[in-house]
Structure formats: C-alpha cells, structure tokens
Amino acid sequence: MLRREFNLSLFVREMFRKYYLSHHEFYIPKKLEEREFGFVFFDNGTMHRHISFKNIDELVRYIRKIIPSHVFYSSAYYEYPNADSMNQKGWLGADLIFDIDVDHIPTLCKKYHDSWKCLNCGKEGTGSIDICPFCGSERIKKKTWVCNKCIETAKDETLKLIDFLSEDFGFSHKELEIFFSGHRGFHIHIDKKDVLEMDQDARREIADYIRGVGIDTDFFLKRVQKDLYEYIWSLDSKGWHKRLIRGMYSFLLKMSRDDLMLAGLNSERINILIDKLSVHGPDALNEVVLTLNEWKILFHNAIKEEQCIIDEKVTIDIKRLIRLPDSLHGKTGLRVIKLSYKELENEDVLKKSIVFNDGYIRLYVKRIPEKVLDWKFENVRNKVIDVPMYLGIYLLQNGGDDISLIKIL
Ligand SMILES: [Zn+2]
Ligand SMILES: [Zn+2]
C-alpha cells in the first residue's frame, strides 16, 4: 500500500511541476512583501509557514523549486511577515475575506457522491449528515466529493453574497476580487483602505449581518392593536427591510394553508393573508396584521430564504492563510482562479479551472461515487475505467483505497 501512495504522490507532483514550469502569469497579491506564505509539501503533508518573499519572481522561483501541493498566503499584512511567532510579526491590517463552501450548504447532489460512517454504531449511508440517525452520535467519518452541481450551488450563493456586499454595503463590483478555490467554493477578497484595519468584532458584525443572525423584530414592526402588529417596510426599502418582505413572500408562495397552520399561524388570518397575496403580491404583507409570534415565524423562514451561507470563521479571522490564486489545489489538481463578475455569472467555472486537459489515465476502482466533477458513473464496482487526466488526478487524490492507478495512457 505504501508503495502505491509513494508512486501516486510522485506522479501528481510531476504533473504539478509541469504546470508550475509552464504557467507564466501568476496572480500577484497586493503588497506581496508584507504577506506571510505557507506551503504544504507532497512528501509529508505538513504546513511550512512564516515564509516571506520580496517579490513575485522570488515566490515563483520558490514554488518551481519545491513544487508544493498547496500554496497559501496571509490575508494580513505584517511588518515582519517571516517572524516565527504571530506576536512578533507586527500586524498592519488584513483584507476582508468571505468564504463560501458547499460543504456548509445542503445540496441534493450530495446523496450521489457523499457518504458517511458512524464511528459509534458502525452504520453507513449516503449523503451528508452531522448526527447519526441510528444512534445519535456525532462521531461521523465523512467522505465527500465535489460535482459540477456543487460548484453551481456555491456560485449561486456567491452571487447572493455579492448582492449583499454591493446593495447593502456599497462596494462596487470592481472592488471585489472573486476566486474559485479549486475545490468546492469561492472566496471574495476586499482590500479597500476602509476595511483593512477592522478588528474581529467589526468583521463579525458584517458576517452576522450577511448570515441574518440576530435580526431584531422590533425594527420591522409597528403595533396597531393590543396584540397585533403590521410590517412597515416594502420592496423599495433597503437592507434586511427589503430582504425580509421578499423572503416572506417567497416562503409563503411555497406553503399551503395547512402548512401555515401547522407552522403556528391562526387560520382566519392565514385566509386573509393568502387571499390578499394572490391579488397584491408581496405588498399584501403590508396590508395584514399578525401577532408578534406569527411575524416571528414568517421572519424565521424569510431569513432562511434570504441569508447567505458564508463560513464566518474565515471572515472573522484577521490572520488567516488563504489559497494563492493560480496555484493548484493539492486535493483536486484544479487551479485556483480569479474571476470577473461576468465570468462568475456566465462561464463554466470548473472548465476554466481545469489544468490537466491532455491525456487519459487508466484506473482500477473498487467503488466510485455516481457523480464526480462533470462526470457520471453508473454502477461502477470493481472495474477498470479510462478517464481524462484531470478527473483521474482528483479520483486518485481523494479515493483512498477504493481507487488505484493502473497506467497513464
Ligand atoms: Zn451511529
Ligand atoms: Zn455535488
């Protein structure tokens, strides 16, 4: 087994070498000399960090020499980026970073490629879970893959994030740098002067706002009778005032009268609401009165419709190491790419990030998920298959004992 892994990592490293030697236009992070870099090597998989470079040439020379499996750089700027301890680095500021990872977003495609095993009771299943449905244990071993549907879902979430950043925070599209991570998500970086010195609390406020956390109902309602309230904002309003009415409307469109009664709304008021909705659309929400509790139920569901699922840890962290654009993701062999807003909206992101377009590879698979990247496999068990190089590399890097290399074609 060791022999196989040894050969695999040599082979993938060789492919990475070809890419790094032939690629010439590397992304240059702003103030590169103030950034800390970190690298994961192929041989032992550990992170080597606290490294800095004077310029892009020096960085590229280093990458070409060591051929890393992952390359990271700091969102932060430091006086001494290569100091060994974080306290000695002299933090000068950090870009504002957002991370969208489809791992955190429920998608239907997961049942075609993800699987889990409970380490407590030993039961197994497909899809993605956090708690074992059989014994309630949280000791779950997950096996996850990415498919083009995952990337599509993450992309939609990213467009939602951009809408928040431009509509509610006033950033222009040009001020947002958009990246595909080379795996299952997207990053947005903002390096505008106003954000660089923001502390963790300020960044947390922004993350909470985008995730719809801590929305205070008092800001949105007016009491009109003893226990009845009306919603006083319209679709022409800004921020969550608009988002809530839009979210309530899309939630209500999906619900029947019975569903709403089950959710806890009063049947008489539901009838009035639904009748008005069919005539006046979202404006109907300004024409009805509901109890505080009923509004809370609608708000809760509206937030679920409208919130953007970002990984808040990434946004809050002011010393984060993030993937270097134009480097390869060691787990997939896909390239981290910078995208314009138009490219994000209209182009096939996966295709753009594929580097290993040439050639095929022959694999022996014990088992393989039904969907991987842009490929489908039906009932493939204990079989020899030929697949394009980019897919083969991802399968080998992620498949463990289930997938082994027979030969390069
Ligand atoms: Zn279990
Ligand atoms: Zn998927």
CATH topology of the largest domain: DNA primase, PRIM domain
Quantity of strands, as a count:
21
Morphology: globular
Low-pLDDT regions: none
**SS-based class:** alpha+beta
Radius of gyration: 25 Å
Span of the ends, CA to CA: 22 Å
CATH homologous superfamily designation of the largest domain: DNA primase, PRIM domain
Summarize the structure.
The protein has 409 residues and is α+β, with helices and mostly antiparallel strands. It has helices at residues 2-22, 56-66, 110-113, 148-168, 193-196, 200-211, 239-254, 257-263, 267-280, 292-306, 312-316, 341-346, 349-353, 389-399; strands at 37-40, 47-51, 70-74, 76-78, 91-94, 96-101, 115-118, 124-126, 140-143, 177-180, 185-190, 221-223, 228-231, 290-291, 321-323, 337-339, 360-367, 371-372, 375-376, 381-388, 403-408.
Folded structure, characterized:
The structure is a single chain. The protein is of the alpha+beta class and 409 residues long. The chain folds into four domains: 206 residues, DNA primase, PRIM domain, CATH 3.90.920; 34 residues, no CATH class; 90 residues, Helicase, Ruva Protein, domain 3 (Orthogonal Bundle); 54 residues, Ribosomal Protein L9, domain 1 (3-Layer(aba) Sandwich), CATH 3.40.5. The chain is 37% helix and 22% strand. The chain has 14 helices and 21 strands. A four-stranded antiparallel sheet has the order 2-1-3-15, with no helix packed on it. The protein is globular, with a radius of gyration of 25 Å. The mean pLDDT is 94. Bound molecules: zinc ion (2 copies). The site of one zinc ion has 8 residues, from loops.
